[in-house]
Amino acid sequence: MALAPPVTEAPPIAIARQPTPRPWRGLRPPKSLGVRIGLIVASVLFLLPLYWMANSALKNIDELSAFPPTLYPHAPAFENFVRAVTYIPFGTFLLNSVILTTGVALGAAISNPLIAYGFSRIKWPGRDFVFGIVLATIFLPFPVLIVALFDIFAKLHWIDTFLPIIVPAFFGNPFFIFLMRQFFLGLPNEVSEQARIDGANEFQVFIRIIMPLAKPAVAVVIIFAAVQAWGEFLTPLLFLQDESKYPLSIGLQFYRQEHDVAYNLLMAASTLIVLPVVALFLAFQRFFIEGITVGAVKG
Amino acid sequence: MIAAPRFRRFRLTPDDWRNLRTALPFVGPWVIGFLAFTVYPIFYSLYLSFTNYSGFGDATAAGFTNYQHLVKDPLFWQSLTNTLYYTGLAVPIGVVVAIVLALMMNQNVREVAIYRAAFYLPTIIPLFALTFIFIVLLNPGFGLVDYLLGLFHIPAVNWLGDARWTKISIVLLAQLGAGGPALIFLAGLRAVPTDLYESAIVDGAGPLRRFYRITLPLITPVILFDLIYGTILGIQIFTPAFVLTGGTSGGGAYTAGPENSLLFYVYYLYKNAFQYSDMGYASAMAWVLFVISVVLALAIMRWSKYWVHYEVT
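Output (structure tokens, whole complex):
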């Protein structure tokens, strides 16, 4: 048998690149194992609060107060959820949260694409300077405005209505304008040019040509706006004082004073509030992760 | 970040005018909202800061008295130091945690999407709900955290009852939000040209050296953004402290945590405006906060000239 001589020596340049062989190399577990353990430990750490919320929500008060704490509910008390929603006007708070969230998401969906279009697909003098002001408002701390805003809304008789929270959403949000603008800048100019040649005005180009293409970006804006409105705390605290107008974020506070802090019920109520957010995240995970990175690539 | 205006002859061509007219209906809503909900309130609160105003009736001129009282108000100084202490801890730690998370999100394992989701999920959970969960986790009687520390023979800490630990608790809570900035860092890591790493490997650079010499310099612009944005968010810290200390219960007679250790700047501003009905004083606080935020942002920008790399050298 005429075999070619086995290649025992690699070309010198390759040897130089090779790491020095280690005697225990064969006994080592694959490199990805250590990485995976680290990733899993970190994931557990970040998901632990959510697990502990659900865990505590299902314990009766004796088990919750036990030390050491039980790592899972030994006697799951599902009735906690029923008690949590009946002890406080949960339905009213929920309805208020839904109205606020819907209103803010609607306002964001309408205003931000419109505004971003004006900052990306029309070239007007001073545009980039004004867009710089839009971005600068990201760095303005909102609490600077709260005293004046409260007084302005009070004079408009808007306190104890949803208007102070919903109306500003119809005038755009710098993050969402930035995100939509990035998307619009990525669309080729030809798509609008053809429509303009066919005699469409700018608004028709926006509605008929650009918006159908922008559905994924609008979806990202709606999702982020809804999640943010659902968890909003400061603005309802300031502008809604009548308990019948409270959303869930403020309603839970109210619940705590009423019931001398029954933590398991508080956790049950929190679980019900967090659940839709988690469901939305699992359903639209791609949108969340991409939505953040879209704006990040070129800032 | 802010585009500088391009200088040119200050004359608009008919085309410019036409484009301006076309753009106005699109950007108009932002302009109106900006004027009504940002510019006007800022100047209105500047005016209020020179008045005595309870929120009812008329504001009466007060000159500089609100600002004079601020300087002499020990609670103002405590709220400011509390806030700077919190921000000074939470922001640098937050940058490090976010970079570590981004490096983890960038690992070449098949199920990496699951880990990314796990790191990101807490950032969209409402902050008030996370605060409630922390009350249970950190409870000195039955909390999981003290139990786990006990397993390693670390003495229990009264996280929310001991003035030395209350702010640390909120710093920890804030780290659950690191998944958001981590995604931006991840995009930054992805943008590093791979041939840089390849030639570094040829030169015999180990992973640590590659990180310090290649990765870190190239993500300094993201670090700058995260530092500024984190600082602006940090000085606004309010919700966790408000929820932890019982917030609306007790009718305003309560303190903001043990020894007022959770009396953050915005919390004290809120109390002055909405519990003590001293809108003029609160407006003065708002303006001081505005100035502090601008000064901090500019200071970080200036400092960044020494360490931000905008291109590969």
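Chain B touches chain A through 110 residues (CB under 8 Å).
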